[in-house]
Amino acid sequence: MLPPDEADSAATEENDPEQNTAGQSMMEARAQYVEMAIQQAIRRGEFDNLPGAGKPLANLDRGYDPDWWIRQKIESEKITGLGPPALTLRTENAELDARLDSVQSEAAVTEILRDFNSRVVAARRQLQGGPPVVTPTRDVAEQLALWRERRAARSEAARQQRESEAAALAAMTWRERRRARPQ
């Protein structure tokens, strides 16, 4: 054990930046070794043809987001139904017309719209954290009329397609029709 005066001087020598060159030289040696290993790998071509080479880094324009990995996982896996109600309702609102077009009956369209409107109203009433709910409710009668118009336009387009195919088939000779038949 050192006397108190010698212990104090030994402690100040360890903390003195001019005296502590062994640690710095060790760090510099490690940095030089790493740099040398990287340069050798570059010369060997180990960094050539990596996935993402020549492409910009993603999300550089966004600010810092502590939940970046969750957002990235949701986007890559295309997971739906997760997140605050404001965001899920907003995405559902954007995809609602396509969902309505896949339905065949007016009763089903009405049920989907009523369910959507009730969830929007319920989300507005909740005072939980997260972004505010700005998704509008949908007028059932108006959306039903728009659904009927889209359905009529689709059936008209399908009818015209069938007529044009029939006219093209009628214009062919019997040999051309025989060759055009699926086998």
Automatic annotation (TrEMBL):
InterPro entries: DnaJ_homolog_subfam-C_membr-28 (IPR018961)
Sequence ranges assigned to domain DnaJ homologue subfamily C member 28 conserved in this UniProt record: 34-100
Record's compositionally biased regions (Acidic residues): 1-17
Span list, region Disordered: 1-28, 156-183
Pfam families (UniProt xref): DJC28_CD
Feature: compositional bias, Basic and acidic residues: 156-165
Protein name, per record: DUF1992 domain-containing protein
Species of the source: Cryobacterium serini
